[in-house]
Each structure stands twice: as structure tokens, then as C-alpha cells.
Amino acid sequence: MRQGFLLSACAAVALALAGCENTDQAEVDRAVQDVIAGDESDLNAIMMTVADPDEAVAYFAKAAKEDPDRIALQRGLARSLIRAGRNTEAVQAWDKVVAHPDATDDDRVDHADALIRTGKWDQAETVLDAIPPTFESYKRYRLEAMIADSNREWDKADSFYETAVSLTTRPAGVLNNWGYSKLTRGDFDEAERLFVEAITFDPTLFTAKNNLVLARGAQRNYQLPVVEMTQTERAQLYHTLALSAIKQGDVETGRGLLKDAIDTHPQHFEAAVRALRALEGTVVN
Length: 285
Prior knowledge:
InterPro entries: TPR-like_helical_dom_sf (IPR011990), TPR_rpt (IPR019734). This is Flp pilus assembly protein TadD. It comes from Rhodovulum adriaticum (Rhodopseudomonas adriatica). The chain contains 15 helices and no strands. The chain is an all-alpha fold. Helix 10 packs parallel to helix 12 (206-218).
């Protein structure tokens, strides 16, 4: 079907140009190629964003094999592998992309991202260090912050997180990461503030809500925060608070929170039920 559309479009362009007295064959050929390139560009964009990840991988793998010198196809394959969760293969694909003479600093940042996803932190750091400091992007600084975190270089991490936040209009994810960094350092007040800010930007970000509850629980504050949440989320957050309380020895509080989780959940909450049974069994024994 797509091939038929291409042929029809190309024929229409050729006929239209052929009707012009001063149009030579070279102009017709260039116009036809523009139509083909435009159609392929649109299809590539669709495959990289909304298509099924595995279908996108198959599409770009085939296209890149047929035309291995086109970096756009190699790049599409690498990004599709990331979307499909095939991170080890994605690293190999990004290796090919960054070896291409037309590779960009954005490609190198994506290469570092793939390396981090496979636990190759040192290699990712080396890749980022080789990128000129004049190249600034949200993703670059988010990755720099994560690497600084892994190295326990807290001042650098805070600086990179702050810069990353300033370079995006959708900072919820990086604010959540920054908050989790503060949480692991024991800076609970600052962690809470960052999680709340993340939720302000994205009220659907459950990870930040759960992390916020962890920060409160670490301070033995077992009250749910006043943030937007669904009934299911409320039950899950009660469950998180319960486990936090039990871990810190506040067993009776944990028992009550588990019961709240079970009563609140609109369906059967198996994890909370198991935890409560285990707790009661331990107490009885």
C-alpha cells in the first residue's frame, strides 16, 4: 500500500513538472526523490515514536542492512532497540552510529545513555567527557548528574541536576531523580521538597509519590502527603508506608497501615494481604 502511494505521488509530480516547458529530466528526477525522501522521513519518525517497538526494530534493521551508509537508519535502529528494552543490542547499534563520520554530539549522548542502561558507567563517563563542554542539552546533564551520583560526587551531581532542570520544560523525571539522590544521602527534607516539585509538574508520576512517602517514612512520618492520587495509588502508598514502619520497628503502625491499604484498594490487594499475614504469623509465633 505504501509502495503504491509512493508510485502514485511520484507519477503525479513527474506529470506536473513535465507540463512545464522549461523543466528538464534532471529536475523531474530531483522532485521525485524529494517526495520519496519526505515520505521515508515521515515513516522513520513514526517508527521511532509510536510504532510497536519490535516492529520498529525489524523495520530499521532491514532498512539499515539494505543501505548501511545512511546514519539516519542506523540511528533509528539504535533508538528502536532502546524502546524495545534490548539495551545490549542498542549499545552495539550506537557503537556503529558514533563511528559514522556524520555522527553528532547528540548521538554520543545517546550512546552514553545506552551504556548506562547496561551498567557500563565508566565507559559512559568516558564518552561524556569526550564531548565538548560547549555542547549543552538536558539529556547530557541528566546523565552527567546520574554518573556523579554513582561516584558519590554530590556537589557535582547537584550542579548537573540543577542545570538539567533549567534546560527542560518537563523536569518531573529529573526532579524525581534528584530527590532520590537526596534520599539516599539522608537529606530527607530536601528530598521531600524535590519530590513534591516533581509531582507539581507531573501529577501522574507515581514513582515520585512513592519516593515522597519513603522520605516521610524514613522520618517516622506515616501520614500520606496531600497530593493528587487515585484510590489505587492511595492503597499502594499505604502499603509503602506500612513496610517502612515495619522496617523501623513500628510494627503496630505498620499493621494498621497494611489494613488501610487492603481496605482502600478497589480490588484484592494481594501484596498487602501477604504482608499482613506474614506479620501476624511472625507476631503469633
